[in-house]
Amino acid sequence: MKRDPRIQFKTRSEIQSFQEESLRETLEYISHNSPFYKRLFLEKGVDISSVQTIADLRRIPTTCKEDIQRYSNDFLCVPRSKVIDYVTTSGTLGEPVTFMLTENDLDRLAYNEKLSFTTAGCLPGETIQIMTTIDRRFMAGLAYFLGARELGSGIVRVGNGIPELQWSSINSLAPETCIVVPSFLVKLAEYAAKNGEDCCKSSLKRAICIGEPLREIDLSDNTLTKRIGQLWPGLSLHSTYASTEMQSSFTECSHLCGAHHQPDLIIIEILDENENPVKDGEVGELVITTLGVEGMPLVRFRTGDLCRAYNEQCKCGRNSTRLSPILGRKGQMIKYKGTTLYPTALYDILDNIEGIINYQVQVYTNSLGTDGIQIKIGTATPTDSFEKRIKEHFRAKIRVAPDISFEPVELLAKAVMPPQSRKAIKFVDMR
């Protein structure tokens, strides 16, 4: 499958033509090599020769995570002997799913992350400090390492946590870029303030952020971004969006106005609940078709993630689609006292309340059969007046206030970040 690192800068019609040629190659490949798609096409009467354009993709049924959970091995298009690396999804919704990558897939992953780094402004020869795990079958950490090598960067593999080691590495190795979960930057800045470090004098110029949103749906800075900006002025924060299933990522450029799509690696659709394309600017579910994946390619895979697409040319000159932050996942929608919510709305409020050290949102079915919300909060001031102030913040922002319970900070920390987890578990759905 051919690649073109400059495709993002070409016209929309050139991008579409490129993608449609790649799509036809992809469909030809999976129709011969994927047991799952062979069976699906036969059962649904899909004639791939009739799928010539992106619009024609609607002739193919969508697939979802449950399909991969049930038929994982049937998605594999190569003999098991060609599999080089095994990764799993984080299991945010349901059981984790294993993906199998070939040598060519790892090369594609490296190419993808090199593009992501250059989109964010990284240059060959600079140093990148990786503040996320590279083990535990985590695709992202491996992708960052491979992409940094492909770019020609120096790599500092610190892993997640350990502020003292992070600062020691920053001071001694002078990285220009870090890969980080953005809320950890707050902890790094707080550690710096207590230990005589000066964030403003550090070598870091940019942070490529994963796992948590930096912007609101309209691309304005959210509460977490504003807080980091106060603690670490001058640090450029770049949103990314990625998933194991798509084996590629979307990254913000220097204009920080939505994460750029890489058209030579993936086709995207934004669909409504009836699987029809949404109108420009409307929120819908992201559906992806991978291009150039050898091991486990996916066609019209429903990610469950809700977002908005921006199709006008970016100030950086790219004509590729940009994605807003993820509003939420379809499976995480909460109906609470007549208000529709997603966890990110709750996080944005909690991150803005001084005195909250950590928290976990739990959603359950109450005695009336409707959604209930309890927020466990770790704080040094577990008082009635603080609980009242927290609820006032919620009422001011979203008109309703969830139940609040105070928990010991150390005990809650273990629930939020258990030893076997790769990501903070800030949301627990018990419905």
Description of the molecule:
- The protein has two domains: about 1-325, 3-Layer(aba) Sandwich (Rossmann fold), CATH 3.40.50; about 335-430, ANL, C-terminal domain (GMP Synthetase, Chain A, domain 3), CATH 3.30.300.30.
- The protein is built from eleven helices and 20 strands.
- It has helices at about 10-35, 35-45, 65-70, 105-120, 140-150, 165-175, 180-195, 225-230, 345-350, 385-400, 410-415, and strands at about 85-90, 100, 125-130, 155, 175-180, 205-210, 235-245, 250, 260, 265-270, 285-290, 300-310, 320-325, 330, 335, 340, 355-365, 370-380, 405, 425-430.
CATH superfamily of the largest domain: ANL, N-terminal domain
| Distance, first to last CA | 43 Å
Average the pLDDT over all residues and give the rounded result: 92
What's the alpha carbon Rg, rounded to whole Å?
22 Å
CATH class bucket of the largest domain:
Alpha Beta
Q: Could you say what the CATH topology of the largest domain is called?
A: Rossmann fold
The DSSP helix count reads 11
Shape: globular
Q: How would you concisely characterize the structure shown here?
A:
This protein has 431 residues and is α/β, with parallel strands linked by helices. The protein is 31% helix and 24% strand.
Walk me through the topology.
Elements: H1 12-33, H2 35-44, H3 65-71, E1 83-88, E2 98-102, H4 103-119, E3 127-130, H5 139-151, E4 154-157, H6 163-173, E5 177-180, H7 182-194, E6 206-209, H8 223-231, E7 236-243, E8 248-252, E9 259-260, E10 266-271, E11 283-290, E12 301-310, E13 322-323, E14 328-329, E15 334-336, E16 339-341, H9 343-350, E17 356-365, E18 371-379, H10 384-398, E19 403-407, H11 409-416, E20 427-429
Parallel strand pairs: 3-4, 3-5, 5-6, 6-7, 17-20, 18-19
Antiparallel strand pairs: 1-2, 7-8, 8-9, 9-13, 10-11, 11-12, 12-13, 12-14, 15-16, 17-18
Helix pairs in contact: 1-2, 4-5, 6-7, 7-8, 9-10
